TrEMBL record:
GO terms for cellular component: cytoplasm. InterPro entries: FAD-dep_OxRdtase, FAD/NAD-bd_sf. This is FAD dependent oxidoreductase. The lineage of its organism: Eukaryota, Fungi, Dikarya, Ascomycota, Pezizomycotina. It comes from Parachaetomium inaequale. Residues 39-452 form the FAD dependent oxidoreductase domain.
Length: 485
């Protein structure tokens, strides 16, 4: 088994298409010097950290309270997986639910699928209410099967889920089609069958900058380029014990809340509550998460017209695709969104490296380098990936791959995110391990975390899916969905 590196984000990462025009918040410093203390410290300036800050401050404002909230980000704002992803906001209604049903029962699986579905409306509402421009586009997503065996397995999964009453409502939104016209219907040359289901796509970078900018308006203190090096257990335990003893004798004596000391290269800060939203990098700060959340690398690219004088790129039947690939024993997929200008963001190609070269992607935090076989899959040509895979995309349409990048995902041993109070760490909350599928999960999970942190709700009171709850048991994983799957 390849070793796992649990370091901090590396300098000079590859730059994604989404990040090609840096936001004004890229290097934002709300204050020059780190404040000495705050009520709530959020670590990580990606989608999860930004959404936590937004929900915390929005809810506090509605209650006329104003906690001091500081967000520390190791590199530029949204420089992690969020700024380098495929742009899909795509609830999984047909794949993960089967596995989750087997493990936790159909009701728990349906709760997860419904939670993901709820993100479509929740993100649309955020974008409309806060007037955020992030290219949000609703789409019917096609999950395309390219071999008869895949098509048969999809039918089997669909039949299985249809037998479960818990899925009745959700599956009403899903269609399964098979037939010789599948290539024309989907735009995928080798299509044999496909699921269609509701989804959306967007610029994850602009969405996250929108969350950060609204949170800043509500009072967030954001410091980018400030890596957290350690979270120290309460340095003040002895004096708190004295206070607790005194409080027993005198009811006017208050015990100060437990504080955490967080160190950075720019000094230390104490905080009453901490939200660790570092996804792939969680084990660098909370080593007990090393087996549960493993940093894993993925690759994506942007395919555009070769020059302004090239013919317009063909429009696909839908702007959200997942193309399943099977080459002998090697399986993988390409996820793809088509942008308004016809260009395409595509990524994946796991079948080119995942099984054959685990060291190239498993247990690494290096998003400064590419994954060569995946890079070749998308960039080699002519004819090039688009012409090979898509109907009507012939080499004469003259495409070029103008951005290729990698990103580090927090793969979770049991495929589920870790959300809630970190076991054994008073006042520390975790929101991480999105398993390469965080867009329809992290926004509302962050809302639940904000409710736990600031409103004092229990995990159960937030209404988050029960199986997302982080626990001591999940830190010693029963499943290996990363290398084992
Ligand atoms: C190539 C690729 C394609 C993907 N495609 C999709 C997709 O289409 N749809 C989908 O749903 N998901 C996709 N994902 C996954 C998705 O991007 C993630 O699930 C999601 O972005 C996780 O958000 P996050 O905020 O938890 O993590 P991140 O965006 O990684 O944010 C974590 C942040 O924490 C910072 N950090 C880490 N350690 C420290 C520290 N010690 N101190 C301070 N800051 C620290 C990092 O720099 C980073 O900015 C993809 C991921 C990749 C890499």
């Amino acid at each position: 088994m390849p070793s796992i590196s649990t370091g901090l984000p590396v300098p000079h990462p590859t730059r994604s298409y989404w990040q090609s025009v840096p936001s004004a918040l890229d290097k934002h410093q709300s204050v020059q010097h780190l404040p000495a203390s705050c009520d709530i410290l959020i670590i990580g300036g990606g989608y999860a950290g930004a959404a936590t800050a937004y929900h915390l401050l929005k809810s506090a404002a509605s209650r006329n309270t104003r906690p001091s909230v500081v967000l520390l980000e190791a590199r530029g704002a949204c420089s992690g997986a969020t700024g380098r992803n495929g742009g899909h906001l795509r609830p999984d209604l047909t794949s993960a639910p089967v596995l989750l049903s087997e493990r936790y029962g159909p009701r728990a699986a349906a709760a997860v699928a419904q939670f993901e579905m709820d993100h479509l409306a929740a993100i649309a509402q955020f974008v409309a209410e806060e007037d955020v421009d992030c290219d949000l586009t609703e789409a019917t997503s096609f999950d395309v099967f390219t071999t008869p065996e895949q098509a048969a397995a999809a039918r089997e999964r669909h039949d299985l889920l249809r037998k479960e009453p818990a899925f009745a409502g959700l599956l009403a939104a899903v269609g399964l089609y098979a037939g010789d016209d599948a290539p024309d219907r989907t735009g995928v040359r080798d299509a044999k069958a496909y699921f269609c289901s509701p989804a959306a796509h967007l610029s994850p970078y602009k969405l996250t900058m929108g969350l950060l900018s609204r949170a800043l308006e509500l009072g967030l203190c954001l410091k980018t380029h400030t890596p957290v090096l350690s979270i120290l257990e309460d340095a003040d335990d002895a004096s708190r014990a004295d206070e607790a003893a005194a409080a027993e004798d005198d009811e006017d004596v208050r015990v100060r809340p437990r504080c955490h000391r967080i160190t950075t290269p720019q000094g230390a800060i104490t905080a009453t509550k901490i939200v660790v939203a570092t996804n792939a990098y969680t084990a660098a700060l909370l080593p007990e998460y090393a087996a549960a959340i493993v940093p894993c690398k993925g690759l994506a690219c942007h395919i555009a017209a070769a020059s302004p004088s090239s013919p317009p790129l063909p429009r696909l039947p839908t702007s959200s695709l997942c193309i399943r690939v099977q080459q002998g024993p090697l399986s993988g997929y390409t996820y793809l969104v088509q942008r308004a200008d016809g260009s395409v963001v595509a990524g994946g190609a796991h079948h080119t490296y995942k099984q054959t070269d685990p060291a190239s992607w498993y247990g690494t935090v290096d998003d400064a380098g590419l994954i060569e076989p995946a890079w070749r899959y998308y960039c080699d040509g002519p004819p090039g990936f688009a012409a090979r895979a898509l109907v009507g995309w012939v080499p004469r349409t003259r495409t070029c791959v103008d951005h290729v990048w990698t990103g580090i995902m927090g793969y979770s041993a049991d495929s589920l995110p870790h959300v809630g109070a970190a076991p054994g760490r008073d006042g520390v909350f975790v929101l991480a391990g999105f398993h390469g599928h965080g867009m329809p999960v992290a926004y509302l999970a962050a809302k639940g975390v904000a409710e736990m942190v600031w409103e004092g709700k229990t995990y159960e009171e937030t209404g988050l899916p029960a199986v997302y709850k982080t626990s001591q048991e999940r830190l010693m994983p029963r499943y290996d969905d990363i290398l084992g799957a």
